[in-house]
Amino acid sequence: MGKVYNLAVVPGDFIGKEVVEEEMKVLKIIAEQFGFAFKVTLYPHGGEYYIKTGELLSDSTLAELRGHDAIVFGAVGHPELQKGEVEKGILLKIRFGLDQYINLRPSKLYAGVDAPIRKIHPGLPDDYEITVVREGVGGLYKGIGSYDGVVARQEMNYTNAEVERILRYAYELARDKGQELILGFKSNVLEYVSAQQWQPMFEKMGKKIYPEVLAKYAHIDALNGPMLINSIPQESFVIVTGNMFGDVITDLTASLFGGMGVGASACINPYGTSMFEPIHGSSPKDYGKGTVSPVAAILSGVLMLKNLGEEKAAKKLELSVVNVLKQGKIPDFTINSGVPTKQQTQYIMEEIKKRTQ
Ligand code: IPM
Ligand code: MN
After folding, report:
1. Interval 245-298: pLDDT, tens
2. Cα–Cα distances in Å, from 143 out to 131, 235, 250?
């Protein structure tokens, strides 16, 4: 018997449950093929569970999650909860509590996929990739601020150590991929965080430690609009940015590359427990119809396999998805693709079974 990984599985609400069920099926077969296994502990937490029990995510549950090799996450969010209770009380609690400071969000141009970016930039090759390294636990997300009824303030707060560790990860990723690294921030306005901290730290680290990485700074607004839309680099590249800007730009990159249904993500703590989640939400309106795409969740599973060190299994699973897409079997990732959720998984499983390695 090979290795057994302890997985905490948190499907969450609505379509989170649907896509995680599919992801787990696929992960199970791929593990069997490569001689390892998953021991799954299911956590019912989410908006629905909170409404029923009054529990968001207790400190003891958080401690339990920390004891796992990885966390498979679906999505949380409920129409009866409008104040960010579950977002803050569950999702962000895990990200912060487990110090998942790297929020990795790759977008790839898959052959056979009718991605909007193809219409804007018809010349981009298949497999063209933009990888966003979003800082995952700091900045505006720390929730530091106040409101006295007249003035509200919300602080973008970063320690040097927090900036240093995310920049280092981004440089190493760009170096390993042999790609350009672009820091997206706002030095013309954010005097302290951007002009005095992130940008100089980025430049210094590049010169001193990673001189082989082609690196440059761009204003995040210029990157978001003019660059992605009018003058995109012809070679795949990596973006590193803060938490809030990264939140915004990754909805754009996912949408450009085929929609939220293809956006995978990893919340990584290289020294602790990491979590893998599709970046789409719980989408109550689409729940129960069997039409949402499980691809973003399955691709998050690929990121998990890589993170667990199961490189071969990760490659095989990604290749299986790529082959299905290449054959045009899943033309897009919307609920109107015409290919039911379970059928999409079925195609991917058939592809996995075709080859043993
Ligand atoms: C995301 C989401 C979350 C975020 C919300 C749900 C807290 O938008 O993962 O991108 O802002 O990080
Ligand atoms: Mn978001």
Report:
1. 999 999 999 999 998 889 999 999 999 999 999 999 999 999 999 999 999 999
2. 26, 37, 21
Q: What is the CATH number of domain 116-256?
A: 3.40.718.10
Q: What is the CATH number of domain 1-106+263-357?
A: 3.40.718.10
Ligand 1: residue whose CA is nearest its atom 9: 279
Q: What is the pLDDT of residues 193-244, one digit of tens each?
A: 999 999 999 999 999 999 999 999 999 999 998 999 999 999 999 999 999 9
Question: What order of strands is seen across the sheet that includes strand 215-219?
Answer: 37-42, 4-12, 70-75, 274-278, 264-268, 102-108, 129-135, 237-241, 180-185, 215-219
Q: Ligand 1 centroid vs 247 CA: distance in angstroms?
A: 7
The ligand that comes nearest to the alpha carbon of residue 243 is 1
Centroid of ligand 1 to alpha carbon of 100 (angstroms): 13
The rounded Å distance from CA 13 to ligand 2 centre is 16
